[in-house]
Amino acid sequence: MSRPATLGQLRESGWESVPVKEEVRRNVAARIAAGKPIVDGVVGYDDTVLPQLENALLAGHDTIFLGERGQAKTRIIRSLVELLDEWMPVVAGSEINDDPYHPVSRHARDLVRDHGEDTPVEWVHRSTRFGEKLATPDTSIADLIGEVDPIKVAEGRYLSDELTLHYGLVPRTNRGIFAINELPDLAERIQVGLLNVLEERDIQVRGYKIRLPLDLMLVASANPEDYTNRGRIITPLKDRFGAQIRTHYPLDTDMELAVVHQEARPIDAAAVGIPGLRVEVPAHMAAIVATVSHEARRSPHVNQRSGVSVRLTIANYETMVANATRRALRLGETLVVPRISDLDALPASTAGKVEIETLDEGDDGAVLERILKSSILTVFRERCPMERFRDALAEFDGGTIIHTGDDVASADYVTALAGLPALRAAVLPLAGREDPAAVASAVELVLEGLHLSRRLNKDAAGARATYRGRG
Fold first, then answer.
1. What is the mean pLDDT of residues 128-147?
2. Residue in 132, 28, 131, 157 with CA at minimum distance from that of residue 85
């Protein structure tokens, strides 16, 4: 169906103008009534953050999200645009999305006055009704609100003419959603310029006697520590936000892995150009990667004010799979299944994402190693009851030695188990099947778990290790 092209046609169509917050409220209510999530692609907030967000949107509040890095604040904010109507009419040529029924800019008012019901109308998509600014110390009032355009003055207009104005990001998002990321980084004198936007809903530019009654929803993000570290949000501005929502990291490893499976970039045959290559990540290896992040968030040696982002889990997961793929390619295997020995590659993807706090220089590696070992032991205890390994430990007491590492083929693990029926019986439930690659992964977790439980001795050199009994 063609959309109305003039103001008169728009009136005849029955279209009604509503404030942007009313528009969002209507669409949020419809989603809630239909049992649909109000934002897509956000995992782990169903019972915590999203109910608060639903309340804020239904109440028509401007909102600020507080949380450490990597807690999906920006993703939530950007997804709010989907709560707007798909198309919205504006006065043709308007820089600030003027409502055809209630124009506010000089351009739109003049156009409606001169053309009346024949005023041309354009339709804008909701994707263009979202504005965003990363707050930086050099952000100016001109960036956000507007400034005199010297080119328009040079063309012959008077300084007193409203048409000499160049509108900033905020008025250009009129009748839409405007977001400010890292709000505390905005200079306090610039924050003052937002006070009228949030309360009186207007802007003023320099000495012009103009008032633009803007219609917009303002959302912002901030790190709680930024109130004292890099800057602060001035009290009058905080007071004008109707809702303050605190985000958080995933509360358990299952939720952490749900985020990883959604965000991690997979490696497959097409990605590396090797026909038949296939990647399978065992549940116990994925759990170890997620547990590393949770252990880091509990560690007294990691700066918790800086936070341990879910990006760490994603990067570690991708690194583990990449190392397993590299090993499989060198060994000529087409089924890629990560093992414990592949976790030696994680420090490269971990070191830059956590801030270690130790008394001595150079202890960062030791802290990360303790976190990794603790994670392996936690997963081993959860998935492998110790009573299952009594007979297997007896086989090691008889002089059994097993070599592991990134240079050991998967088939060699199967061969080693052939002469150790008790160990084989204990490993297969974890492997889930008798595929050599899956068995190799299970064997390495069992051996490392028994070592960390002080049931086996281990001699290690890089990614290679030898396990033997303690007798």
1. 87
2. 28
Rounded to the nearest 5°, which phi and psi values hold at 64? Answer: -120, 135
Q: What are all long-range contacts of 379-382, with beta carbons under 8 Å and residues at least 24 apart? A: 379/284, 379/287, 379/288, 379/291, 379/445, 379/449, 380/445, 380/446, 380/448, 380/449, 380/452, 380/453, 381/449, 381/453, 382/287
Q: What is the Cα 99 distance to its own chain's centre?
A: 35
Decide if 372 contacts 290 (C-beta within 8 A): no
Dihedral, CA atoms, 22, 23, 29, 32, nearest 10 degrees?
-140
DSSP 177-189: EEEEESGGGS-HH
Could you give the C-alpha distances from 90 to 10, 70, 96, 329, in angstroms and in order?
10, 37, 9, 58
Average pLDDT score over the chain: 88
CB-based contact 456:469 (threshold 8 Å):
yes
* Burial environment of residue 408 by CB neighbours within 10 A (0 to 12, 13 to 18, 19 or more): buried
Q: Closest by alpha carbon to 132, among 59, 183, 91, 90?
A: 183
Please, which pLDDT band fits residue 228 given cuts at 50, 70 and 90? very low
Residues 404, 461 contacting (CB under 8 angstroms): no
The beta strands (E) that lie in 72-126 are given as 87-91, 121-125
| Cα gap 30→17, rounded to integer Å | 18
Q: Which residue has the higher pLDDT, 9 or 189?
A: 9
Give the pair of three-digit tokens for residue 424: 């084989």
- CA 296 to CA 277: how far, in whole Å? 33
Whose structure tokens read 């915590």?
48
Q: Which positions ≥6 away from 214 have C-beta within 8 Å?
A: 96, 104, 170, 171, 174, 197, 201, 202, 203
**299: amino acid identity, one letter:** S
Q: Of 436, 434, 430, which Cα lies nearest the Cα of 410?
A: 436
Radius of gyration of the CA atoms of the chain, in A: 30
pLDDT in tens, 72-105: 999 999 999 999 999 999 999 999 999 999 998 8
Strand partners, 181: 134
> For residue 312, what are its two tokens?
């760490």
Q: Which residues of 344-382 are buried (b: 16+ CB within 10 A; e: fewer)?
A: bbbbebbeebbebbeeeeeebeebbeebbebbbbbbbee
